[in-house]
TrEMBL record:
<feature type="domain" description="ABC transporter">
    <location>
        <begin position="4"/>
        <end position="232"/>
    </location>
</feature>
<protein>
    <submittedName>
        <fullName>Bacitracin ABC transporter ATP-binding protein</fullName>
    </submittedName>
</protein>
<dbReference type="InterPro" id="IPR003593">
    <property type="entry name" value="AAA+_ATPase"/>
</dbReference>
<dbReference type="InterPro" id="IPR017871">
    <property type="entry name" value="ABC_transporter-like_CS"/>
</dbReference>
<dbReference type="GO" id="GO:0016887">
    <property type="term" value="F:ATP hydrolysis activity"/>
</dbReference>
<keyword id="KW-0067">ATP-binding</keyword>
<keyword id="KW-0813">Transport</keyword>
<dbReference type="InterPro" id="IPR003439">
    <property type="entry name" value="ABC_transporter-like_ATP-bd"/>
</dbReference>
<comment type="similarity">
    <text>Belongs to the ABC transporter superfamily.</text>
</comment>
<dbReference type="InterPro" id="IPR027417">
    <property type="entry name" value="P-loop_NTPase"/>
</dbReference>
<dbReference type="Pfam" id="PF00005">
    <property type="entry name" value="ABC_tran"/>
</dbReference>
<keyword id="KW-0547">Nucleotide-binding</keyword>
<dbReference type="GO" id="GO:0005524">
    <property type="term" value="F:ATP binding"/>
</dbReference>
Amino acid sequence: MYALELQNVTKRIKEQEIISNLSFELKYGEILGFLGPNGAGKTTTIRMITGLMKVTDGDIIVAGKSIQKEWRPSISQIGAIIETPSLYPYMTGRQNLRYFSRMYTEVDENRINDVVIRLEIDKVLDQKVKNYSLGMKQRLGIAVALLHQPQILILDEPTNGLDPAGIKEIRNYLKYLAHQENIAILVSSHLLAEVELMCDRVIIIQNGKRVFIQDLKENRMKQQQKVKIKGDPIQVTNALHLYDPQLKISQADDGVLITRAVDEIPEIIYHLAQERIRIYEVYVVSKSLEEKFLEVVGDKDDGR
């Protein structure tokens, strides 16, 4: 069973179709990047998932329950932060957590302490939130979203406005929650380089339709990889042809490009060393998520 499943979801507003037959799944223990240009329908989709907007056609299944037929039980499995967490700045972190815990009957002081320790915010818990850094506010926001022990966490721009250290902190916490606590996390963000570091899979939508989906983890482990070998192109090429006369080699300004199985690369490097070829660098060349994104959606937003 998936943590979250969108089944041919369509949303129309005043005869305009905002989301068209959208389907995808979110697994337990994974971080799924939810991407698209401005106006693609990401916010509308998140609003439907979190129960803030009704689905026109299709269905959303949350932890096995239909959001159409079992709204309250399904929504109770979701925790969400949309951009900046809604916190009370003149209250302490502890007071905020106690305040929001009143929304749920099953949250007690022990649960608050458990979340606080898990997110390592205990040292600042009795300070006023107005004195928190952005990263600490995000962590407190995640703590609030996790109070009722949801199985799914929805985050819209979770690293918005953070410095590199804060971004890394949030990334590590989200990976911990997904991979160690088995929480399913959906992340919408415009920071594509960060999404590539954080997420296990990505889905791209455009004009309300799914146009691309990829398993980033599987792509990283792919057997055949394009590899760049930096060194004298002629010397490297001649040595590689001695290793394998059938090897296809592309010339580059400062070396060559080959496509080979990952586990064969050390053997190739050893052969070049035996041939006394000076090698300055060897690395895998792959398209970045940003390059793939621009290939799929184009260089400009659609303006919707």
